[in-house]
Structure formats: structure tokens, C-alpha cells
Write a structure and sequence with these properties.
With 335 residues, the protein is of the alpha+beta class. Helices cover 38% and strands 19% of the residues. The relative contact order is 0.11. It binds dinuclear copper ion. Dinuclear copper ion binds next to loops.
């Protein structure tokens, strides 16, 4: 194999060390503790593995010597000899296992300490195949509802309550923290404490049906001031249409098929079973991370969602060309 081929072969592994979806990124408190724990386990286990391999090789080598001792009556006997090396080995195993147990214990305690003082509560409901997201669900005057995205203030612990509407899913933002399953009929919890501003990607981590791979989540970690600005904008109802094309789209979206599933605050569209669209155009992607948010993808998604994300619950409505233009024009105003 040439040197060039070796390097090309390593690219997939090296590329996993960077990026928006990376369990070794360590941009969250829990995530970075898990990395430290993982490295500790890897170091201790590697040392043990090398020592055992060395002992095995030495034993095979020494096998050439007569295996038994012969006592004064001429009987062959096998004896276990307690040598300093054996005592040292046992002590090493004891110290190694104890150190890893203690490290696990303190990692767990630190994670629990973060969870005990959340400043913000988010309720997330998993659906095939999208995420319903509600901020401050217990305070109706402050509740913000969005979908397939999380905005998090840096340095502030967030309590995430997780539930599922259909099958088992798993909530995972690899850069920030470990996985947590969402189980129908049960509420589970996760804590996120992001430490670094940036854009990350969450992904459902439990196979949940044909579009499991396209059940992603855009995560924006920002300063507290930016987060407050975003929150204030999200609290507002949708802006009214300003052009005649947008008005035609408004009329279609809020009175025809779309409104029976989607909610748009401040309009007659009050459906509750599909993603809330109040500030849809402010999101980074469409259909749970399936497509980047732009005009072309918006046309493609609304005209024929089943060709973009087969099996999705969004039906192909069969809009006429002028209806499609107006619907896209209106949806683009939902910033
Ligand atoms: Cu939801 Cu996989």
C-alpha cells in the first residue's frame, strides 16, 4: 500500500475527530467528563493488556522447561509459587480497578451536581421522525414551541425532559453529553451544560423506523444575550403577510390542509400533530435536518415531501404551481 493510500484510508477516522457531531468534541460538561473517563479506562486497560500479553508470551517461552518438580518419593507435583511478581500483579489489578471505580463514581456525582441546579427546562417529545421542542412548558406566558432545533445559553445547565409519542427514540447531542432514551409512556431526563459557543448536531441514536437517520436536531449554543434575543423573538406570534403573494400563501396555509396538522401562533392554523411553524424560516434545516433551509429545498419539500423523506407523515398535497409559489413566499416570512 502506498503512503498516499494509507493517508486516504485514514481520512474517515480523522474526520470523526472534528465537527458538529463528535462524541470526542467535549464542548459540554458531561461530554468532556466522559472523554476524561474514557481516556482513563483506555490507558489502564491498555497497560493491563500489554502486561498480560507479555506474561503470556513469557509463559509460552518458559514452557520448554520441565513443567513438574519431582519430590523425594519420585512423585511428580505441580506447585504454585507465590513470587513477588505475582503479588505485584495482584496489587496492580486491585489498584487499577479501584482507581477506575472511583473515577466513575466522581464522574457520576459531578453530572448529578449539574442536574441539581437547572436554570431552564425544555420538554422534548420524539415523533417518527422529528423533535417537538417546548421551552418553559410549565409557564404558559413564557412557553416557546419549536421543532428540530435547540438554542442553549453557554454555561447554563438545562434540564431536558424527554418523552416519546410513538416508539423508542434516543436523544443524543454527541458534542455535549451522553445518550438518553425516550420511551413511550415514561418521562426520562437529561442535563445539558454547554461550555463552548458553536453549532452542533444532535441525532436520534435508537433505530426507530425507516427515517431514523433523518431525525436530527440543530443545536445552537450562544451567549446568554443572544439566547435572550432569540427567545424574545420566538415568543412573538407570526408576522402578518405584507405582499399579495404572501397573503395568498397565508390564506392557503392557515385554512387548507397545512393548518390541520401545523400550528402558527397568531393565525387560524392550530394543528398540534406536526412541527410548529411559527418561526419556521429562522431554523437552519427542514424536516429534522434532512435538508438545509433554502428556497430551493423549500420548494422541493413542499411540492413532494415523499420523494425527499419517504415514509414521513408529511403528505404530498398536490399544490398547483401558483399555490406552491405563494405558500413558499409566506413560509419564508416566518422568521
Ligand atoms: Cu428516532 Cu431513531
Amino acid at each position: 500500500m502506498t503512503r498516499r493510500a494509507w493517508i486516504l484510508g485514514l481520512i474517515p477516522f480523522l474526520s470523526a475527530c472534528e465537527g458538529v457531531q463528535n462524541a470526542m468534541g467535549g464542548q459540554g460538561a458531561e461530554g468532556s467528563r466522559f472523554i476524561t473517563l474514557f481516556i482513563s479506562f483506555a490507558v489502564v486497560c491498555t497497560i493491563m493488556y500489554l502486561l498480560i500479553s507479555g506474561a503470556l508470551i513469557a509463559a509460552l517461552w518458559r514452557r520448554r522447561r520441565p513443567p513438574h518438580t519431582v519430590d523425594e518419593r519420585g512423585h511428580h507435583r505441580t506447585s504454585v509459587v507465590v513470587t513477588p511478581a505475582l503479588i505485584g500483579w495482584m496489587a496492580l489489578v486491585f489498584v487499577g480497578l479501584t482507581a477506575l471505580t472511583v473515577a466513575s463514581f466522581f464522574t457520576d456525582r459531578s453530572n448529578a451536581a449539574d442536574a441539581s441546579k437547572p436554570a431552564l427546562t425544555i420538554k422534548m417529545t420524539a415523533n417518527q421522525w422529528w423533535w417537538d421542542v417546548e421551552y418553559s412548558p410549565n409557564d404558559p406566558s413564557k412557553t416557546v414551541r419549536t421543532a428540530n432545533e435547540l438554542h442553549l445559553p453557554v454555561g447554563i445547565p438545562v434540564h431536558v425532559k424527554l418523552q416519546s409519542n410513538d416508539v423508542i427514540h434516543s436523544f443524543w447531542v454527541p458534542n455535549l453529553a451522553g445518550k438518553q432514551d425516550l420511551i413511550p409512556g415514561r418521562m426520562t431526563d437529561a442535563t445539558l451544560l454547554p461550555r463552548k459557543i458553536g453549532l452542533y448536531r444532535g441525532q436520534c441514536a435508537e433505530f426507530c423506523g425507516v427515517q431514523h437517520a433523518q431525525m436530527a436536531l440543530d443545536v445552537t449554543v450562544e451567549s446568554l444575550a443572544d439566547f435572550k434575543r432569540w427567545y424574545a423573538a420566538q415568543l412573538k406570534p407570526a408576522a402578518p403577510p405584507t405582499t399579495s403573494l404572501q397573503s395568498a400563501g397565508y390564506n392557503y396555509v392557515t385554512t387548507r390542509e397545512c393548518s390541520s396538522c401545523h400550528n402558527i401562533a397568531g393565525t387560524p392554523a392550530g394543528g398540534q400533530i406536526a412541527p410548529d411553524l411559527t418561526h419556521f424560516a429562522s431554523r437552519r434545516s427542514i424536516a429534522a435536518g434532512a435538508l438545509p433551509m433554502n428556497k430551493g429545498n423549500l420548494y422541493g419539500w413542499i411540492a413532494d415531501p415523499q420523494s425527499q423523506k419517504p415514509g414521513s407523515k408529511m403528505p404530498t398535497v398536490g399544490l398547483k404551481s401558483d399555490e406552491l409559489h405563494s405558500v413558499v413566499a409566506y413560509l419564508e416570512t416566518l422568521k
